[in-house]
Amino acid sequence: MMFEGGAKSVFAPLCGKSLDLIWMYNRGHTVVGAEIAEQAVQELFSEKKLDVHVQHVEGVGPLYKSTDGTDGRLQVYVGDLFDLTKYRDLLLSSLKKDGQYYLMIIDYDPAVWPGPPHNITDQRVRQLYGEYCNIEMMQESNLTGISNPDNKASGGNAPPAKPKSAGAALRTSSYLYDRYYKITFK
Ligand SMILES: C[S@@+](CC[C@H](N)C(=O)[O-])C[C@H]1O[C@@H](n2cnc3c(N)ncnc32)[C@H](O)[C@@H]1O
């Protein structure tokens, strides 16, 4: 559905060397990815035998850009997306003036889990994007108190197990929210 009505521009954060990137590129879309592991990015281009040009983008890092047909429609930035300010700058520089950015965040007590996924508050979203963008919270799901699957085997009566995973740790948080935002330029 997302690809109806002609060529689109797609941003793919944490893209790795996912085959989806090539799938979209081969159908004429412009695909901009971001990935921390440079080796994955090199392999993405070499395994698909795509000619590539690498340039350095100030404040971000290397940018791998396809040169097939000189259209540069496949681009992957190598950088750390957990730096939220850098991520915002990269994202907003790739977003068209009338583009839409859908953001999903998870908000929990950071004392229970160091991430990933990292805790991001509503206030942090507004601090990052509020100066440049309209921010519409489309949905908020309160997941506080959902049961911990680690305790199920004991009938739920055992003391909370030491969390073995992010999912289990997040369920021990005194608050847990999913929030979905639509972000557009002012
Ligand atoms: C679970 S993989 C998903 C890869 C791809 N989206 C797919 O579906 O095959 C997560 C990817 O995020 C990348 N990654 C992890 N931490 C990152 C960070 N801080 N900044 C950018 N990329 C990161 C990893 O190197 C990995 O390629």
UniProtKB/TrEMBL annotation:
Residues 155-166 have a biased composition (Low complexity). Gene3D superfamilies: Vaccinia Virus protein VP39 (3.40.50.150). Pfam families: TPMT. Coiled coil: none annotated. It comes from the Eukaryota. Signal peptide: none annotated. Keywords: Methyltransferase, S-adenosyl-L-methionine, Transferase. Residues 144-166 are annotated as: Disordered. SUPFAM superfamilies: S-adenosyl-L-methionine-dependent methyltransferases (SSF53335). GO terms for biological process: methylation. PROSITE patterns: SAM_MT_TPMT. GO terms for molecular function: thiopurine S-methyltransferase activity. This is Thiopurine S-methyltransferase.
